[in-house]
TrEMBL record, chain A:
Gene Ontology cellular-component terms listed: plasma membrane
Annotated region described as Disordered, given as residue ranges: 368-397
Name of the protein this chain belongs to: ABC transporter permease
Biased amino acid composition, Low complexity: 368-387
Principal subcellular localization: membrane
Keywords assigned: Cell membrane, Membrane, Transmembrane, Transmembrane helix
CDD domains: TM_PBP1_LivM_like
Membrane-topology annotation of the record: Multi-pass membrane protein
GO MF term list: branched-chain amino acid transmembrane transporter activity
UniProt-listed InterPro entries: ABC_transp_permease, ABC_transptr_urea_perm_UrtC, LivM-like
Record's keyword annotation contains Oxidoreductase: no
Transmembrane intervals: 16-36, 43-63, 69-91, 131-155, 162-180, 210-231, 258-278, 298-320, 332-351
Compartments reported by the entry: Cell membrane
UniProtKB/TrEMBL annotation, chain B:
NCBIfam families named in the record: urea_trans_UrtD
Record organism: Ancylobacter defluvii
Transmembrane domains' residue ranges: none
Descriptive protein name: ABC transporter ATP-binding protein
Top-level lineage group: Bacteria
Length: 397, 273
């Protein structure tokens, strides 16, 4: 335990600035290396790699959203993928409406899968998605409202710890089953795909792909600044206090459940934005995004990078997904899930604070007063949520 | 524990001045408990407990393990709902049995737990900032800035709890005694009308115990009512206040420490011969 600095720390510490520089630097450098170098140059970044990196950045934003609630409030959500998928579906619906008469069946309004199902008119919940601003609003509203309703009931009933994790898992599984059904009107098993253009730009074009990459980087940077601002505010201090001693917080006069709901909703909205940027870059959204395994994978990213550090979550997402791309494209592909599971076990045992948390520890041991690290940023070493800080008093005495 | 059934529901011998319960008028009392009964799986943790605390009073509560001291605090702070009985606050204006922990804390009842409970990953000063009376809304606190008055108040509390040189250390890095003081400081920051303090000197050295007694007297002198639960008789003597002995969920004796410790029943069940 080191002593903290006495001067009020700036919004972004040194590591925060480095992080932003890297993300925004990539946003400039990667498109330049794509456009200005010859295709056979060693420095050339092919467009498919740009999209792959863009996908990693949306995962990083998703991991950031998990870290906000897991690292700072102790809410271990195993259903964050649901919010990501909802944001993705909102974007996918917009992209479907943009196809217009260019679909296989040539119907000017109905997406192909509806014509195939013999539907005669557009379901009411598809209205408005032909307008981008409406779809963009839904990208944050749909996950946000689900998180508000879910969080309101769960947190008001004081569901915490493992039980909360299980019901978040159940939530995403229920959505998975629902979206699989054809009559839900979201394309069933196949989901939404065959997108043509976005805001009038061809979605396959190199320029669009580069733009989406840059937007993903900007969204990650803004998401980081927002999360950082939140966790450094008085609101954020209450969140950390809830993580460490929820009962104390209640007896201090704070409505812990309200704080949790607000954090949960913000987190869900960030996940929704990540999903919306993900879909046009991978070209498809289907119910498998709701699968519980996906949500658990996000937890692994955050644990690897360092829970309660924000930067670590983003770093973990990129590293693990790079490893996934690397290993699943070779002969080791059948063993990837074993490696992922092994990674999680290894991190929990040997690197409980993750990469960034361990780095912060190492740095604060070297210099006793780190310039920017708030001690509260580091979650307790155990990966399980500290759901009961106070032992329940015995019935009498 | 099995003797719970055989104990008479209320305290007898009202002609005995030591055993007489100070049942004040509801409207005068800061805290008013009447006939409060709490049962856990057939075990009566509180058995028709009745007492009152006056505004500005400091009261010490002693009693053997299982006497219901912590349950009494749980009832007052809204953690446990009584099966029977009335709990009123501030001259009978507020029925505490209808409110939850957060509402009761906001009303002005602060509680220190038996095990010191501070926010371990926050600095000492942040612990006080979090406890400081003021805005509690989630959205409003996103943009909250510390005012000069708040800074002043925190400095004042640091003077009282004497942890000034530790203000930037983590709460979790403090010693046991310092954590107890920090928690008392957090209570002060809440500026409650009534402080409930559960075993504040458990695990403290003699010097720390004496300092804690002084601290609580100072807090009481500044107009806060205090209810202290404690086993340490030296400490209770240091406090020099009215003492109440609980046994099997009701008041066994009440009066000065000397009166209570001379009481036959108290000697029998608690102090030992």
């Amino acid at each position: 335990m080191s002593t903290a600095t006495t001067t009020p720390p700036a919004l972004l510490g040194k590591s925060g600035l480095v992080f932003l520089a890297v993300v925004l630097g990539a946003a400039v450098l990667v498109p330049l290396l794509n456009l200005l170098t010859a295709p056979d140059s060693a420095l050339h970044v092919p467009t498919y790699v740009v999209s792959l990196l863009g996908k990693y950045l949306t995962y990083a934003l998703l991991a950031l959203s998990v870290d906000l609630i897991w690292g700072y409030v102790g809410i271990l959500s195993l259903g964050q993928g649901a919010f990501f998928a909802l944001g993705g579906y909102a974007m996918g619906m917009y992209l479907m409406r943009q196809i217009g008469p260019r679909g296989v069946y040539g119907d000017p309004v109905l997406p192909d899968f509806m014509v195939f199902l013999n539907w005669k008119e557009l379901p009411w919940f598809w209205y408005g998605f032909d307008m981008f601003p409406f779809a963009a609003l839904m990208v944050v509203l749909a996950p946000g409202i689900l998180a508000l309703v879910f969080g309101w009931f769960a947190f008001r009933s004081r569901v915490t710890g493992v039980y909360l994790s299980i019901i978040t898992q159940a939530m995403t599984f229920a959505l998975l089953l629902a979206f699989f059904r054809n009559d839900m009107g979201f394309g069933g098993n196949n989901g939404l795909t065959d997108f043509k253009d976005i805001l009038g730009f061809n979605i396959q074009a190199d320029g669009t792909r580069l733009t989406l990459f840059v937007l993903s980087a900007v969204a990650l940077a803004l998401g980081y600044v927002l999360c950082r601002f939140l966790v450094r505010s008085h609101f954020g201090k209450v969140l950390i206090a809830i993580r460490d001693a929820e009962t104390r917080v209640r007896f201090t006069g704070y409505r812990a459940e309200n704080y949790k709901v607000v954090a949960f909703v913000v987190s869900a909205m960030l996940a929704g934005v990540a999903g919306a940027l993900y879909v046009p870059q991978v070209g498809i959204i289907n119910p498998s995004e709701f699968s519980p395994a996906n949500s658990i994978e996000i937890i692994v990213w955050v644990a690897v990078g360092g829970r309660g550090t924000l930067i670590g979550a983003a770093l973990g997402a990129v590293l693990v997904n790079y490893a996934k791309t690397y290993f699943t494209s070779g002969m080791l592909a059948p063993y990837w899930l074993f490696m992922l599971g092994g990674l999680f076990v290894a991190v929990t045992l040997f690197l409980p604070k993750g990469i960034v948390g361990t780095f912060y520890d190492w740095r604060s041991r070297r210099s006793p007063a780190p310039a920017d690290l708030e001690p509260a940023d580091l979650a307790p070493a155990d990966l399980a949520p500290p759901d009961k800080a106070l032992p329940e008093p015995k019935p009498a005495e | 524990m099995s003797a719970a059934d055989t104990l008479e529901p209320d305290v007898p011998e009202t002609n005995d001045p030591v055993l007489a319960i100070a049942k004040k008028d509801l409207t005068e009392a800061l805290l008013y408990l009447d006939g409060v009964t709490v049962t856990f799986d057939g075990f009566r943790a509180l058995n028709a407990l009745s007492f009152t605390v006056d505004p500005g009073e400091m009261r010490a509560i002693i009693g053997p393990n299982g006497a219901g001291k912590t349950t009494m605090m749980d009832v007052i702070t809204g953690k446990t709902r009584p099966d029977k009985g009335d709990v009123f606050f501030a001259g009978g204006t507020t029925d505490l049995t209808k409110l939850d922990e957060t509402q009761i804390a906001t009303l002005g009842i602060g509680r220190k737990f038996q095990k010191p409970t501070v926010f371990e990953m926050h600095t000492v000063i942040d612990n006080l900032r979090l406890a400081l009376k003021g805005q509690r809304g989630a959205l409003a606190n996103i943009f909250k800035r510390e005012t000069a008055a708040e800074r002043e108040k925190i400095d004042e509390i640091f003077q009282t709890i004497k942890l000034n040189e530790h203000r930037d250390r983590l709460g979790g890095a403090l010693s046991h005694g310092q954590k107890q003081w920090l928690e008392i400081g957090m209570l002060l920051a809440q500026d409650p009308k009534l402080l409930l303090v559960d075993e504040p000197v458990a695990g403290m050295t003699d010097a720390e115990t004496a300092q804690t007694a002084e601290l609580l007297r100072e807090i009481n002198a500044n107009g806060h009512s205090v209810v202290v639960v404690e086993h340490d008789m030296t400490f209770v003597r240091d406090l020099g206040v009215r003492v109440m002995c609980l046994h099997e969920g009701s008041v066994l004796a009440e009066g000065t420490l000397d009166q209570v410790s001379a009481n036959e029943r108290v000697i029998e069940v608690y102090l030992g011969r």
